[in-house]
Write a structure and sequence with these properties.
Layout (H helix, E strand, L loop, with lengths): L13 E4 L15 H6 L5 H16 L4 H15 L4 H15 L6 H12 L3 E9 H11 L3 E10 L2 E8 L4 H14 L7 E4 L5 H5 L3 E5 L3 H10 L3 E2 L7 H4 L8 H10 L4 H12 L32
Parallel strand pairs: 1-2, 1-5, 2-3, 5-6, 6-7
Antiparallel strand pairs: 3-4
Helix pairs in contact: 3-12, 4-6, 4-11, 6-11, 6-12
């Protein structure tokens, strides 16, 4: 399905995965709303509103204007949140909230791409504070995510880097240039029409659980359409991906300093609801030590 093992005499290749409704069954950021409520970051009214937003997201509704309204709402909501508290809440509840909603099919694809010698990169509009620990959980080599501005240890409510739409495609191209990926041999997976620019950037685009607009585009372009519908706990089926310790998750959560809040923003950005704009992307290499940043301007980071 994914071709032969990479020929190392050829340029390198990677597989780029959107996160929400592609690798996991829900919105990564909105899934943490209960944790944020219990931690005192949001009140009951805000918790109910984010629950409604999650429902709309899962139902496949919300146009671009709705997303923009949600983006603005969530940006304002996270203003003043203590970054360290957000990191700790995400780390403490990551296994409980995210592990059960990882698609078995996506986990298998990640395994297959790694076995074939390709890097795996998560490219998500959700905030880095949420996406980076999930990337660690999945065994991804790098992460591209939205980043919020932080001052004096708290979110300002402004977005430094928004990983949404064409910006995702730009990040993919920059990584290809810095890492030597041959984009014609790379793969990409997403559920949303907003990621068409990213899908167009690679030689092997795939629509996963696509919304109506992406399904039409995939049909017109003869792109493969995949259906993922089996959430499963990683520890029950991914023997090849060791489960990271809580300290490792805390460290990963700390990498993105500004975006758990922003993850809420991402939803707005993709589906037309009110989420905030987010900045920068960070990356992590597991197999090759000592690699350098792709671009300081875009915030690529490896550990």
């Amino acid at each position: 399905m994914l071709g032969d093992v990479e020929n190392h005499s050829l340029p390198r290749a990677a597989a780029f995965f959107d996160l929400d409704k592609t690798v996991i069954a829900k919105s990564s950021t909105l899934t943490f709303s209960k944790s944020f409520y219990q931690g005192g970051l949001i009140n009951r009214r805000a918790a109910l509103r984010t629950a409604y937003t999650q429902f709309v997201f899962l139902a496949g509704g919300a146009d671009h204007d709705q997303m923009e309204r949600m983006r603005r709402y969530l940006s304002a909501l996270c203003k003043g949140w203590n970054v360290q508290q957000v990191r700790e809440l995400v780390a403490e509840t990551l296994h409980e909230l995210i592990d059960p909603i990882i698609y078995d099919e996506a986990a298998s694809l990640i395994e297959e791409h790694h076995a074939a010698g390709r890097d795996v990169v998560i490219v998500s509009t959700s905030g880095a504070e949420v996406v980076e620990p999930i990337g660690t959980l999945l065994g991804a080599d790098r992460v591209v995510a939205t980043r919020m501005v932080v001052e004096d240890g708290a979110f300002t409510g402004e977005i430094e880097y928004y990983a949404y739409g064409p910006t995702k495609a730009e990040a993919v191209r920059e990584l290809a240039e810095s890492e030597g990926y041959d984009l014609s041999r790379c793969y990409a997976y997403s559920d949303s029409a907003t990621d068409i620019p990213m899908l167009e950037a690679v030689g092997h685009p795939h629509a996963v659980n696509p919304d109506r607009a992406l399904r039409r585009e995939a049909t017109a372009r003869d792109w493969p359409v995949l259906t993922f519908n089996r959430p499963v706990r990683l520890k029950q089926r991914l023997s090849s991906l060791p489960m990271p310790s809580r300290p490792a998750l805390l460290a990963a959560a700390g990498l993105g300093a500004a975006a758990a809040t922003v993850g809420l923003v991402w939803l707005a950005g993709r589906r037309g609801m009110p989420l905030p704009a987010l900045p920068g992307f960070a990356g992590r290499r597991k197999r090759t030590a000592g690699s350098t940043s792709a671009s300081a301007a875009t915030g690529v980071k490896r550990t």
